[in-house]
Input
Amino acid sequence: MTSVEPRPRLLADLIADRTEANRRFFEHESERIARLCHRLAERFARGGRLVALGASPAAGSDARHVAVEFVHPVIVGKRALPALALTAEGADLVRQAELALETDDVAIAFGGDEDESAEVATALERARDRGCLTLAFSRDTPADWSFMPESDDPFVRQELIETLYHVLWELVHVFFEHRGLLEGRAAERTHDTGASSFLYPFLGEQETDLEAVVGDVQSSVLMKAEEVGALRERTLTEGASALVAAAAALRRCFEAGGRVLALGNGGSATDAMDVVADFRSPPARGAADGAGTRWPARPALDLTEDPAILTAIANDIGIEAMFARQIIALGRAGDAVLTLSTSGNSGNVIAALAEAHRRGLTTIALVGYDGGRIAADALADHVVVTPSEHIPRIQEAQASAYHALRALVEAPDAPEVDGAA
Output
């Protein structure tokens, strides 16, 4: 059995970079984030939608992620909010925006640092012409609200942006509970946060005092940022050995001509999209403006990306076979399967791991909660657990884990492994 020692210096640097960037960004932006939640709530109250735009594969994964979070809330007490994602594979992004956007919508644009910046900027310009509220995460993309995490690492920037849009999704609901703070709506005499009160424990019965509610939401933003900072550190620290061993296995897989097949459900499906984008089209590294070196592209398949295949299998056989059938069709000796599950109990993920195991493929699992069945029954060769029951925080920490995995694969001092090509 091969023993792979973790490289504590690299992982310590990855943790330190994320911890400091997270602290600095949310301390600086917490008040603006709270005020943006208010503006978003007003748009939704008027019948607006969240329209997420993404031109590149990585940006498209974020667009789809934020859309599914708003449409399919995973926390008790949260209402479904209208959202959709427009991405490059759906035709010209500008034309899609022109056809889809309406006056009260919120247009949120991902990417824009590199080649797609002109397309994203033009799409947002069309949105502003329609009267939409606009939000962007790039210096090159003018918008009503712009947020740009200061980091030379594009993965760190993406992780902070993911936390930001999760926080917007969680806290926009606060303002629905305060009717008097929404334009054109009358205040009510009492306020009860109900089943979702644990999301914002600082709130009281403040129906007309906007500044008081903004202050409470700002405190909640900082609390959530601190929570995910600690969870990222714990995930990467406790999962260090598994991450390094998984990276060594992936390195061996690629050097022998193999591929990584990624999969997940819901928000985890968009994380699988991001994993594949990071392997296929790695971002420039070394400067926040996009200048810098690039890692080599690696072969990767996204088993969530073809709706015809997914719906055919789900309709004719069942949802549990959605990924296993694709592994039967596409998996080859020497390939690796990377799965993401916040619970560790998803039936179709477990079936995929079982099929991959039968075929002798390397298996990697990123799981939340206590690891679920996947960790308890050792259903994957390498398991990284993010110990939390809060799905947005799990997904944010898992993004750090698969980004760390990507970095470890390309580390110049990657460990030698018995049998490596």
Q: What stands out?
A: The beta strands are 50-54, 83-87, 106-110, 133-136, 145-146, 260-263, 300-302, 336-341, 362-367, 382-385. The first strand starts at residue 50 and ends at 54. The mean pLDDT is 89.
